[in-house]
Amino acid sequence: MIGLPDGSVVNSSGGTAYLALRPLLADYVLSMPRGAQVIYPKDSAQIVSMGDIFPGAKVLEAGVGSGALTCSLLRAVGERGEVHSFELREEFAAVARKNVAAFFGNEMPNWHLTIGDVADNGTEGFDRIILDMLSPQDALDMVAKSLLPGGVFIGYIATTTQLSDLVEALREYGGFTEPLAWETLVRDWHAEGLAVRPDHRMIAHTAFLVRARKLAPGVTAPLRRRKPSKGIEAYQAKKAVAAAGAAALAAAEPVELAEISE
Protein backbone atom coordinates (compact mmCIF):
# COMPACT_ATOMS: atom_id res chain seq x y z
CA MET A 1 0.00 0.00 0.00
CA ILE A 2 2.95 2.33 0.69
CA GLY A 3 3.58 4.53 -2.32
CA LEU A 4 0.25 3.81 -4.02
CA PRO A 5 -2.11 6.69 -4.83
CA ASP A 6 -5.51 7.09 -3.18
CA GLY A 7 -8.15 4.90 -4.78
CA SER A 8 -5.89 1.88 -5.26
CA VAL A 9 -6.91 -1.74 -4.72
CA VAL A 10 -4.72 -3.88 -2.49
CA ASN A 11 -5.00 -7.58 -1.74
CA SER A 12 -4.57 -9.25 1.61
CA SER A 13 -2.48 -12.36 2.14
CA GLY A 14 -5.74 -14.30 1.98
CA GLY A 15 -6.59 -12.91 -1.43
CA THR A 16 -9.31 -10.47 -0.32
CA ALA A 17 -9.34 -7.22 -2.30
CA TYR A 18 -9.58 -3.90 -0.42
CA LEU A 19 -10.10 -0.41 -1.81
CA ALA A 20 -7.63 1.96 -0.12
CA LEU A 21 -8.71 5.58 0.31
CA ARG A 22 -7.56 8.24 2.72
CA PRO A 23 -10.45 8.82 5.18
CA LEU A 24 -12.50 11.98 4.87
CA LEU A 25 -13.04 14.09 7.98
CA ALA A 26 -16.59 12.72 8.20
CA ASP A 27 -15.18 9.17 8.16
CA TYR A 28 -12.54 9.99 10.74
CA VAL A 29 -14.80 11.56 13.39
CA LEU A 30 -17.19 8.60 13.34
CA SER A 31 -14.40 6.07 13.92
CA MET A 32 -11.90 7.96 16.09
CA PRO A 33 -11.50 7.20 19.82
CA ARG A 34 -14.17 8.86 21.92
CA GLY A 35 -14.21 10.34 25.36
CA ALA A 36 -17.62 11.94 24.89
CA GLN A 37 -20.29 11.70 22.19
CA VAL A 38 -19.09 13.43 19.02
CA ILE A 39 -20.94 16.13 17.11
CA TYR A 40 -22.09 14.35 13.94
CA PRO A 41 -20.80 15.53 10.57
CA LYS A 42 -24.26 16.76 9.58
CA ASP A 43 -24.32 19.11 12.57
CA SER A 44 -20.68 20.19 12.18
CA ALA A 45 -21.46 21.10 8.56
CA GLN A 46 -24.44 23.19 9.69
CA ILE A 47 -22.35 24.95 12.32
CA VAL A 48 -19.59 25.80 9.85
CA SER A 49 -22.06 26.94 7.17
CA MET A 50 -24.82 28.62 9.16
CA GLY A 51 -22.30 29.96 11.65
CA ASP A 52 -20.34 31.43 8.74
CA ILE A 53 -16.98 30.17 9.99
CA PHE A 54 -14.54 31.87 7.62
CA PRO A 55 -10.76 31.75 6.97
CA GLY A 56 -9.00 33.91 9.53
CA ALA A 57 -11.88 33.86 12.04
CA LYS A 58 -11.29 33.85 15.79
CA VAL A 59 -13.59 31.18 17.22
CA LEU A 60 -14.46 30.10 20.77
CA GLU A 61 -15.99 26.68 21.47
CA ALA A 62 -17.02 24.75 24.58
CA GLY A 63 -17.11 21.79 25.38
CA VAL A 64 -14.64 20.01 23.24
CA GLY A 65 -15.81 16.44 23.82
CA SER A 66 -13.72 14.20 21.56
CA GLY A 67 -12.60 16.98 19.20
CA ALA A 68 -14.89 16.31 16.22
CA LEU A 69 -16.16 19.88 15.85
CA THR A 70 -12.69 21.22 16.66
CA CYS A 71 -11.31 19.52 13.54
CA SER A 72 -14.00 21.15 11.38
CA LEU A 73 -13.40 24.56 12.95
CA LEU A 74 -9.63 24.39 12.50
CA ARG A 75 -10.08 23.48 8.85
CA ALA A 76 -12.52 26.33 8.30
CA VAL A 77 -10.48 29.10 9.98
CA GLY A 78 -7.24 28.06 8.28
CA GLU A 79 -3.73 28.99 9.35
CA ARG A 80 -4.62 32.66 9.86
CA GLY A 81 -7.52 31.91 12.20
CA GLU A 82 -7.67 30.81 15.83
CA VAL A 83 -9.78 28.28 17.71
CA HIS A 84 -10.02 28.60 21.50
CA SER A 85 -11.58 25.56 23.17
CA PHE A 86 -12.80 24.99 26.71
CA GLU A 87 -13.45 21.60 28.27
CA LEU A 88 -14.40 20.93 31.90
CA ARG A 89 -13.20 17.33 32.03
CA GLU A 90 -9.48 16.68 31.72
CA GLU A 91 -9.96 13.13 30.38
CA PHE A 92 -12.11 14.44 27.49
CA ALA A 93 -9.55 17.13 26.71
CA ALA A 94 -6.80 14.50 26.53
CA VAL A 95 -8.79 12.42 24.03
CA ALA A 96 -9.58 15.51 21.94
CA ARG A 97 -5.93 16.58 21.90
CA LYS A 98 -4.84 13.18 20.57
CA ASN A 99 -7.64 13.03 17.98
CA VAL A 100 -6.92 16.49 16.59
CA ALA A 101 -3.17 15.80 16.38
CA ALA A 102 -3.80 12.43 14.70
CA PHE A 103 -6.07 13.94 12.06
CA PHE A 104 -3.85 16.90 11.13
CA GLY A 105 -0.60 14.97 11.60
CA ASN A 106 0.73 17.31 14.30
CA GLU A 107 -0.35 19.68 17.06
CA MET A 108 -2.05 22.77 15.68
CA PRO A 109 -0.32 26.02 16.75
CA ASN A 110 -3.53 28.04 16.29
CA TRP A 111 -5.55 25.79 18.62
CA HIS A 112 -5.69 26.84 22.27
CA LEU A 113 -7.22 24.22 24.59
CA THR A 114 -8.14 25.22 28.16
CA ILE A 115 -9.40 22.87 30.87
CA GLY A 116 -11.97 24.88 32.80
CA ASP A 117 -15.33 26.63 32.70
CA VAL A 118 -15.96 28.73 29.59
CA ALA A 119 -17.87 31.20 31.76
CA ASP A 120 -14.47 32.20 33.17
CA ASN A 121 -13.10 33.06 29.73
CA GLY A 122 -11.39 36.46 29.81
CA THR A 123 -10.45 36.73 26.13
CA GLU A 124 -12.51 39.04 23.94
CA GLY A 125 -12.78 39.87 20.25
CA PHE A 126 -14.27 36.59 19.00
CA ASP A 127 -15.98 36.46 15.62
CA ARG A 128 -17.90 33.29 16.45
CA ILE A 129 -18.84 31.44 19.66
CA ILE A 130 -20.20 27.88 19.73
CA LEU A 131 -21.39 26.35 23.00
CA ASP A 132 -22.07 22.61 23.33
CA MET A 133 -23.06 22.41 26.99
CA LEU A 134 -25.97 21.56 29.25
CA SER A 135 -27.08 25.15 29.96
CA PRO A 136 -25.50 27.55 27.45
CA GLN A 137 -27.79 30.33 28.65
CA ASP A 138 -25.76 30.42 31.88
CA ALA A 139 -22.80 31.73 29.87
CA LEU A 140 -24.61 34.59 28.09
CA ASP A 141 -22.76 37.22 30.14
CA MET A 142 -19.49 35.86 28.78
CA VAL A 143 -20.88 35.61 25.24
CA ALA A 144 -22.10 39.21 25.29
CA LYS A 145 -18.71 40.41 26.54
CA SER A 146 -16.50 38.26 24.30
CA LEU A 147 -18.36 38.36 20.97
CA LEU A 148 -17.79 41.19 18.51
CA PRO A 149 -20.81 43.19 17.25
CA GLY A 150 -22.26 41.29 14.31
CA GLY A 151 -20.61 38.10 15.54
CA VAL A 152 -22.47 34.79 15.49
CA PHE A 153 -23.43 32.74 18.55
CA ILE A 154 -24.51 29.12 18.11
CA GLY A 155 -25.86 26.87 20.83
CA TYR A 156 -25.84 23.08 20.41
CA ILE A 157 -28.44 21.44 22.65
CA ALA A 158 -30.13 18.05 22.82
CA THR A 159 -33.68 18.49 24.17
CA THR A 160 -36.72 20.68 23.56
CA THR A 161 -36.55 21.93 27.15
CA GLN A 162 -32.98 23.15 26.62
CA LEU A 163 -34.04 24.67 23.31
CA SER A 164 -36.85 26.64 24.93
CA ASP A 165 -34.65 27.82 27.81
CA LEU A 166 -31.88 29.05 25.50
CA VAL A 167 -34.18 30.83 23.03
CA GLU A 168 -36.13 32.61 25.76
CA ALA A 169 -32.93 33.52 27.62
CA LEU A 170 -31.52 35.16 24.47
CA ARG A 171 -34.73 37.15 24.02
CA GLU A 172 -34.78 38.27 27.63
CA TYR A 173 -31.07 39.09 27.72
CA GLY A 174 -31.29 41.54 24.83
CA GLY A 175 -28.50 42.68 22.57
CA PHE A 176 -29.00 39.77 20.15
CA THR A 177 -31.02 39.21 17.01
CA GLU A 178 -34.13 37.04 17.12
CA PRO A 179 -32.88 33.45 17.71
CA LEU A 180 -33.21 30.94 14.88
CA ALA A 181 -33.67 27.31 15.95
CA TRP A 182 -33.52 24.22 13.75
CA GLU A 183 -32.46 20.60 13.42
CA THR A 184 -31.11 18.63 10.48
CA LEU A 185 -32.28 15.20 9.37
CA VAL A 186 -30.23 13.22 6.83
CA ARG A 187 -31.62 10.32 4.80
CA ASP A 188 -29.62 8.39 2.22
CA TRP A 189 -31.27 7.14 -0.96
CA HIS A 190 -30.97 3.83 -2.75
CA ALA A 191 -30.55 4.40 -6.50
CA GLU A 192 -30.14 1.40 -8.78
CA GLY A 193 -31.65 1.67 -12.23
CA LEU A 194 -35.35 2.36 -11.82
CA ALA A 195 -35.27 1.24 -8.18
CA VAL A 196 -35.01 4.67 -6.54
CA ARG A 197 -36.23 4.87 -2.96
CA PRO A 198 -35.19 6.23 0.43
CA ASP A 199 -33.08 4.00 2.64
CA HIS A 200 -34.86 2.24 5.46
CA ARG A 201 -32.60 3.92 8.02
CA MET A 202 -31.62 7.55 8.50
CA ILE A 203 -29.71 9.86 10.82
CA ALA A 204 -32.57 11.74 12.42
CA HIS A 205 -32.45 13.89 15.56
CA THR A 206 -29.01 14.36 17.06
CA ALA A 207 -29.31 17.92 18.39
CA PHE A 208 -30.96 21.31 18.00
CA LEU A 209 -28.98 24.32 16.86
CA VAL A 210 -29.78 27.89 17.90
CA ARG A 211 -28.21 30.89 16.17
CA ALA A 212 -28.25 34.58 17.11
CA ARG A 213 -26.05 37.54 16.21
CA LYS A 214 -24.78 40.16 18.61
CA LEU A 215 -26.03 43.69 18.11
CA ALA A 216 -24.02 46.89 18.43
CA PRO A 217 -23.73 48.31 21.99
CA GLY A 218 -26.94 49.97 23.14
CA VAL A 219 -28.99 48.70 20.19
CA THR A 220 -32.31 46.96 20.76
CA ALA A 221 -33.67 44.69 18.05
CA PRO A 222 -37.10 45.65 16.61
CA LEU A 223 -39.95 43.82 18.30
CA ARG A 224 -41.35 40.83 16.48
CA ARG A 225 -44.64 41.61 14.78
CA ARG A 226 -46.20 38.35 15.73
CA LYS A 227 -49.30 37.36 17.65
CA PRO A 228 -48.30 36.18 21.16
CA SER A 229 -48.58 32.41 21.45
CA LYS A 230 -49.99 30.33 24.28
CA GLY A 231 -46.58 28.70 24.51
CA ILE A 232 -45.04 32.01 25.65
CA GLU A 233 -47.75 32.45 28.28
CA ALA A 234 -47.18 28.90 29.55
CA TYR A 235 -43.41 29.44 29.68
CA GLN A 236 -43.79 32.68 31.65
CA ALA A 237 -46.23 30.98 34.06
CA LYS A 238 -43.73 28.15 34.55
CA LYS A 239 -40.95 30.62 35.35
CA ALA A 240 -43.19 32.49 37.79
CA VAL A 241 -44.04 29.27 39.65
CA ALA A 242 -40.36 28.28 39.80
CA ALA A 243 -39.36 31.73 41.07
CA ALA A 244 -42.10 31.68 43.71
CA GLY A 245 -41.01 28.24 44.87
CA ALA A 246 -37.38 29.33 45.12
CA ALA A 247 -38.38 32.44 47.10
CA ALA A 248 -40.51 30.41 49.50
CA LEU A 249 -37.70 27.94 50.02
CA ALA A 250 -35.21 30.73 50.72
CA ALA A 251 -37.57 32.39 53.20
CA ALA A 252 -38.38 29.19 55.10
CA GLU A 253 -36.87 28.97 58.56
CA PRO A 254 -34.54 26.02 59.16
CA VAL A 255 -36.09 23.26 61.23
CA GLU A 256 -34.07 21.92 64.13
CA LEU A 257 -34.46 18.23 64.81
CA ALA A 258 -34.73 17.43 68.52
CA GLU A 259 -32.80 14.45 69.79
CA ILE A 260 -35.08 11.57 70.61
CA SER A 261 -34.23 9.72 73.79
CA GLU A 262 -35.81 6.53 74.95
UniProtKB/TrEMBL annotation:
Q: Where is the tRNA (adenine(58)-N(1))-methyltransferase catalytic subunit TRM61 C-terminal domain?
A: 29-192
Citing just one GO molecular function, the answer is: tRNA (adenine(58)-N1)-methyltransferase activity
EC number annotated for this UniProt entry: 2.1.1.220
Kindly state which reaction or reactions the protein catalyses. adenosine(58) in tRNA + S-adenosyl-L-methionine = N(1)-methyladenosine(58) in tRNA + S-adenosyl-L-homocysteine + H(+)
Against Pfam families, the record matches this protein to: GCD14
Q: Return one Gene Ontology term, BP aspect.
A: tRNA methylation
User: Where, in this chain's numbering, is S-adenosyl-L-methionine bound?
Assistant: 66-69, 87, 117, 132
What is the purpose of this protein? Catalyzes the S-adenosyl-L-methionine-dependent formation of N(1)-methyladenine at position 58 (m1A58) in tRNA.
Q: What is this protein called?
A: tRNA (adenine(58)-N(1))-methyltransferase TrmI
